[in-house]
Amino acid sequence: MKSLVIASVVASTVVVISACAFDNSALSIKRGMGSNPQLPAPNLEKIPTVSVAKAIGWQPNTMPIVNEGLLINAFSTDLNHPRWLYTLPNGDVLVAESNSPANLDASFSLRGWFAGMLMKKAGAGVKSPDRIMLLRDADKDGVAELKTVFAENLTSPFGMTLLDNTLYIANADALVKYAYQTGMTQVEGQYTKVVDLPAGINHHWTKNVIARNDGKLMVTVGSNSNVGENGMDIEENRAAILEIDPVNQTSKIFATGLRNPNGMAIEQKTGALWTVVNERDQLGGDLVPDYLTSVKEGGFYGWPYYYYGQHIDSRIASPDPALINKSIIPDYALGSHTASLGLLNTSKTSLGELFSEGMFVSQHGSWNRSPKSGYKVIYVPFENGTANGESIDVITGFLNSSEEAQGRPVGLAHDQTGALLVADDVGNTIWRVTKK
User: Fold this and answer.
1) What domains can be seen in the chain, in order of their start residue?
2) pTM score, two decimals?
C-alpha cells in the first residue's frame, strides 16, 4: 500500500512539473491590468500549472531596484519571516513575524503534501514565529537601531491597528487586544480576545484589521477553498470583510464575494474603504486578475460563482441565478496571479509629487503562472477618489535573472518621515524607500 502511495506521489509530481515546461499565458501582464482589463476565455486546468520561484534570499551586495528618483536601504535585517507592518504614532514600527498555522489534521493528503513542497520551495515552509517585533529608529537615520520582541505566543498574527490606547492584532483564529502606552517596547500580560474569527482548514489564513474613524474595526477573511470545491458550508463568514464593534464585541458581515482580501486602506479624499483581493486559480495564466477595489457596505463581489462582475465560473453552480445581477465589477485589475497583498494610501508619503495621490500595492508573486507575474511593489494613481491611469513600478528586482526569488514583498507602511517601508518575507528584511 505504501509503495502505491509513493508511486502516486511521484507520478503526480512528474505530471505537475511537466506543466511548467510551457507558458500558460498568451497575454502580457499589463493587458490584465487597469480599469478595463482584457479577460480572455477561461482555460480550465485539471492539473494546475506550477511555476514556483525558488527562494534564495539576498546575496551580498544585492538589493531591490527602485524607480528613478528613489533610493532604497535596509531598515532592519535578520528578521524571521516578516509579513505585516504597522507604524505607531511615536514612529515605532511593529512587524508581524508569521506564517500559516500548524495543520491539525494528521491524515495524509497528496494535495496537502504537494502544497507543502511548493511552500517550502517558495520560502513559505518555515514554522510560524507567532510574534510581533518592535523596530525603533530613534536617531532618524533610516536604520532601526532597536529590534526587540514586543508580543509573542500569538497564533499566526497578521494585521495590527491602534485605537484608543488599545492595540488590536488579527490572529488566524481571533481578533485580540493589548493595552498600549506610548513608547512601550513590550506588552504587559496576556492578550484579551475580542471576537473569534473563522479558522479551521485555513486555506487562506491571513487576517488583516484596520480602524475606521467611527471606532469600528474592519477585518479581512479569505476563503477556505479555491472556488468552493470543499463545499460552501465551510465558507461561513469567509471570502468577506467583517465589521467588528470592539466595545460590544460583536461582528457582522460588511461585504462578501471577496475570495482572499488582504490589504485595506482608507482613501484619503472620500474616506471610502479599499482593499486588494487575490482571485481564483486554474482558469489559465490570464485569468482571473487580482484586483484593487472600493468596498461597498452590503456589496457582493462574485466569489465563487462569478468573477470580475458577471463572468460565470462554470465549476460551481450559483444557488440563486439572480446573484449575477448583484456581482460588482472591481475598480482596478492588478494582473493575474500577482498575489497582491499589501495596500497603503499615499496620504503620508514623502516620495514626491509623482506618488502624491494613489495607493501602493505589494505583489508577493505568482506560483502558477508562466511567465511569472508580480514580485514587485507598484503605485496605482488616483484622481477624484478613484483609481485612474497606468500603474508605475516602484520596487522591482525581487526576481534575479534566473527567476529565483531573492525576496518577496508583503506588508507596507510609512515610517515617521513618510518613507515607504516594505516587509520582505523571503529576504527577512524591512526595506525603506526614500526620495533622492
Assistant:
1) 2-435 (2.120.10.30)
2) 0.93
